């Protein structure tokens, strides 16, 4: 059995790769891959959902006030991706400026800086070590990076130099799940503002699948580790309590348990 998995921008890539694998299997192309399903976390899927629900998420986190949120709803009329008027553009600029004050990947963490600071707590120590590992010549040689092509590696670069030729991966999710492939979609339920769990729930609901096992908590060591719901066509959605973008970076034990149970075809 073969499964695909990935986080964040992989929400675009993984369903597409699975789609091509499905086509190859139908054509009996070699090697035959026994694809069973895929799992994606905090997945970038469609800006129509991610950007629109970022405003709601910012309001829920207390980053923007009631007044600002109400002004956004009044002037943007639910479309926060492309402002239709000047008042909408102005309030969205205000919201973007306020969001820039925090780490949108995890609203409780300190804001990321490009120059790696001296580690002062356990949460940032791994990032501190990553700087030296990624700039080590042996690491670069192992990754096949040609000398002189990439300068100093630093964290927190936001650029994604990809051709935006697939605006939405939702059609691929629909095709794969209705063809019998299993899917686990998980999200930080409470701290990720880059891909709010509200947006993930919204595009999943747009598939119009019936509910199998309704919303409930899932547990680890006797504590709620998040919440989950299953839909028809073997689609499971789960949140990871305390996670950020991406969830396994912040809650590895919980995410490992979640993935292992799902891969074993057991209830979360």
Automatic annotation (TrEMBL):
GO biological process terms, alphabetically, are: proteolysis; secondary metabolic process
Q: Which Pfam families match?
A: Peptidase_S10
Q: Which InterPro entries match?
A: AB_hydrolase_fold (IPR029058), Peptidase_S10 (IPR001563), Ser_caboxypep_his_AS (IPR033124)
Single Gene Ontology MF annotation = serine-type carboxypeptidase activity
What are the record keywords, sorted?
Glycoprotein, Signal, Zymogen
Q: Which residues form a coiled coil?
A: none
The family assignment reads: Belongs to the peptidase S10 family.
Name of the protein:
Uncharacterized protein
Starting at the broadest rank, the lineage of the source organism is:
Eukaryota, Viridiplantae, Streptophyta, Embryophyta, Tracheophyta
